[in-house]
């Protein structure tokens, strides 16, 4: 965290210089050559990078009653978004919406970028462009502590719960099993806790959070069945101006250990 703060301080100090370079806020920034420093009041869209997210995915994005790094929004992705915006001499604005709506909102120009623990997939790459990946993840199974599910094939005759549009749903589809899909991770977990579902397939770090927060649940991994996934930030196809800025900010945060520190701070470990 110290490094992040230092990074933010450095970024803030450098904000005027950086902001004088080509605009970070992509198309909305065209007319502005004298972009303001990071602390400038957010009076118009061009002073902000608008990130779309789905704040139902702890520890990457969630709403914190105590307040988060960007307004009420907290988590690893939120800290990364804030740093990217500051590197651009802008503020980060969050547009919270359903996960399924994020890529459409990006294509419509309603948001500048998506940061949502979003896995890079070939299908998504057809509609949007992805940044340098910043986190390696995998799907896991959450089951009751006394469950006999030990590997993915054990799910064959079980009630499987997934979250709509997540890569967990795509994985289970690929295995050919039937499943029920839910709008939110917490809804799927509720189904498991109530005994209506036997297993929830979801990203590992989020699974660990749910297991910590609920009694009598455990995480079951099957690295042969679930492939590694990479999280990246999405921008509209062809928005290379913003993508370049995002990439340089991410690469800096990967190189100086900021991403690792955030992962530790929010208590997750990236896959080796
Ligand atoms: N990584 C998963 C995906 O991309 C889940 C992301 C999320 O729920 N925010 O589908």
Describe the structure.
- This protein is an alpha/beta fold and 272 residues long.
- It has helices at 2-20, 76-87, 102-108, 122-125, 167-175, 185-193, 204-213, 240-255, 258-265, and strands at 48-53, 56-57, 61-63, 73-74, 91-96, 113-114, 128-130, 135-144, 160-163, 180-182, 199-203, 217-220, 228-231, 234-236.
- Strands 8, 9, 10, 11, 12 and 13 form a six-stranded mixed beta sheet that branches.
- The protein is globular, with a radius of gyration of 19 Å.
- The two termini are 21 Å apart.
- Residues 1-23 and 25-44 have low confidence and may be disordered.
- Residues 54, 57, 99, 116-119, 166-167, 203 line the site of glutamine.
- Glutamine (GLN) binds next to loops.
Topology:
Layout: H1 2-20, E1 48-53, E2 56-57, E3 61-63, E4 73-74, H2 76-87, E5 91-96, H3 102-108, E6 113-114, H4 122-125, E7 128-130, E8 135-144, E9 160-163, H5 167-175, E10 180-182, H6 185-193, E11 199-203, H7 204-213, E12 217-220, E13 228-231, E14 234-236, H8 240-255, H9 258-265
Parallel strand pairs: 1-5, 1-6, 9-10, 9-11
Antiparallel strand pairs: 2-3, 3-4, 6-14, 7-14, 8-11, 8-12, 8-13
Helix pairs in contact: 2-8
């Amino acid at each position: 965290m110290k490094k992040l703060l230092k990074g933010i301080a450095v970024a803030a100090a450098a904000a005027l210089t950086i902001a004088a370079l080509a605009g970070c806020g992509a198309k909305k920034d065209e007319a502005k050559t004298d972009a303001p420093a990071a602390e400038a009041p957010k009076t118009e869209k061009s002073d902000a990078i608008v990130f779309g997210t789905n704040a139902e995915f702890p520890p990457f994005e969630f709403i914190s009653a105590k307040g988060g790094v960007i307004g009420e929004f907290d988590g690893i992705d939120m800290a990364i978004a804030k740093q990217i915006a500051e590197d651009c001499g802008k503020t980060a604005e969050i547009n919270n919406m359903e996960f399924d709506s994020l890529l459409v909102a990006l294509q419509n120009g309603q948001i500048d970028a998506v940061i949502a623990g979003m896995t890079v997939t070939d299908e998504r790459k057809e509609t949007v462009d992805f940044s340098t990946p910043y986190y390696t993840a995998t799907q896991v199974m959450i089951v009751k502590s006394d469950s006999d599910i030990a590997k993915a094939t054990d799910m064959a005759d079980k009630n499987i719960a997934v979250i709509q549009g997540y890569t967990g749903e795509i994985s289970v589809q690929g295995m050919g099993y039937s499943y029920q899909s839910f709008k939110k991770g917490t809804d799927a977990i509720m189904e498991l806790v109530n005994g209506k579902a036997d297993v929830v397939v979801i990203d590992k770090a989020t699974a660990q959070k749910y297991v910590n927060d609920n009694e009598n649940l455990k995480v079951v991994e099957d690295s042969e069945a679930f492939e590694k996934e990479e999280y990246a930030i999405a921008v509209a196809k062809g928005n290379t101006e913003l993508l370049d800025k995002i990439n340089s900010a991410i690469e800096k945060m990967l190189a100086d250990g900021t991403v690792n520190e955030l992962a530790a701070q929010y208590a997750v470990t990236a896959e080796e």
